[in-house]
Design brief:
CATH topology: Lipocalin
Radius of gyration: 16 Å
Largest sheet: 8 strands, antiparallel, barrel
CATH architecture: Beta Barrel
Strand content: 35-45%
Shape: globular
Oligomer: single chain
Helix content: 25-40%
CATH class: Mainly Beta
Order of helices and strands: HHHHHEEEEEEEEE
Number of helices: 5
Number of strands: 9
Length: about 190
C-alpha cells in the first residue's frame, strides 16, 4: 500500500501540482539555499551548544528517495528556529501525524500553541509541503483557500517546506523564510513507537 502510494506520487503530474504553489511560496523555494545558508551561519555562531546538538541531529542523514518513504503514522515533532530574532531556538516536542489521501500525504501538527496543517505532494522529485500555520483556537484555513495576495499574519501563515525522510524513524520538514520570527525553520520528526 505504502509503496503503491509512493509510486503514485512519483507518477503524478508535476506540472499540475506545481500550479498549486502561489508565487510567494515559490519565491521562498527559489531562495531556499541562500536562506538556509544565512540561517545556519547565525545558528552555529550564536546558538547554545545543546541547541546546536539538536540542530545537528535534525540535519543528519541523507533523504530517502520518495519511493522509499513511509511517512504515514504518528510522530513526535520538535520545531527548531534558525536566524532572525534569535540565533537558534529549539522547542519542546509536540505531536504530529501524516496520513495518506491517495495522491499524497496530509500533515498535521496536533499539539502546541502554533499548529499547521496541509498536504505533501511530489514536485520535480521533491516532496513539498504546502500548508497553513495558525494559532490554537484561531482560524484554520486550507492552503488552497488562501487569497492570492495573502502574505500571512501573526495568526495565519502560509507555509512551504521541503520534506525529507532520513530513516524509518526520522524525518524533517525544512521551511525557508517563514512568515514569523526566523529565517528558516526545521521541524524534526521522530516516529512514535506503536
Amino acid at each position: 500500500m505504502i509503496r503503491a502510494l509512493a509510486f503514485a506520487l512519483l507518477c503524478a503530474n508535476p506540472a499540475a501540482a506545481q500550479d498549486a504553489i502561489r508565487p510567494q511560496e515559490q519565491l521562498r523555494l527559489d531562495t531556499y539555499h541562500d536562506t538556509a545558508g544565512r540561517a545556519l551561519l547565525q545558528a552555529l555562531s550564536g546558538g547554545s551548544r545543546g541547541d546546536v546538538d539538536w540542530l545537528q541531529d535534525a540535519m543528519q542523514g541523507q533523504p530517502l528517495a520518495p519511493l522509499g518513504t513511509t511517512l504515514s503514522g504518528d510522530w513526535e515533532c520538535r520545531t527548531i528556529k534558525l536566524g532572525g530574532n534569535l540565533a537558534l531556538v529549539v522547542y519542546a516536542p509536540f505531536k504530529c501525524r501524516f496520513t495518506t489521501d491517495g495522491t499524497g500525504f496530509i500533515f498535521e501538527k496536533l499539539t502546541g500553541s502554533q499548529r499547521t496543517s496541509g498536504r505533501v505532494t511530489l514536485q520535480d522529485r521533491t516532496m513539498i509541503y504546502l500548508g497553513v500555520g495558525y494559532v490554537t483556537n484561531g482560524e484554520q484555513v486550507a492552503y488552497t483557500d488562501l487569497p492570492p495576495e495573502d502574505l500571512g499574519t501573526g495568526a495565519v501563515q502560509p507555509q512551504v517546506a521541503i520534506v525529507e525522510q532520513t530513516s524509518p524513524t526520522t524525518a524533517r520538514m525544512l521551511f525557508p523564510a517563514p512568515v514569523n520570527e526566523s529565517l528558516f525553520d526545521v521541524l524534526y520528526l521522530t516516529r512514535v513507537a506503536d
